[in-house]
Amino acid sequence: MRTPRFPLNVLYDGSCVVCATEIEHYLRIDHGENLVAIDISSPDFDSAPYQISLADFMHQLHAIDQDGQVFKGVDSFWAIWQAFPTSTLYGIMGRVIQLPVVNRLARIGYWLFARTRPYLPKRHQCESETCRIHQKK
Q1: Which distant-in-sequence residues (6+ apart) come within 8 Å of 114 by Cβ?
Q2: Residue 2 belongs to a domain
Q3: Staple 81 to which of 27, 65, 70, 90, CB 3.0 to 4.6 Å?
């Protein structure tokens, strides 16, 4: 797997509390602006330009680099971690996730997460002015 060329588009389900929290964490520490988060649950998201179906995007995390290289699932996390070369923790995680046994276990764990993700709590998304008023209180 080739190291991604940045910026890296990270296509995630923003309505999933776990998914959104994880991606927001990476965005907070991405001082090099290597990551661009794209919420696929947004009503104006269009999957057509990516030639990947919305169902495929919803099935697992995707990251697409500047050259169009697509990373999916566990490989997406590896690609995201490459945005933090000075981070010892992410550097170690990036090397460890490539170890055959660890990689296989991570893929199984991610597969299990992906199967249960639809049942996890959703973020409240409100489009009406009434909700916006209540959210400000």
Answers
A1: 59, 60, 73
A2: no
A3: 90
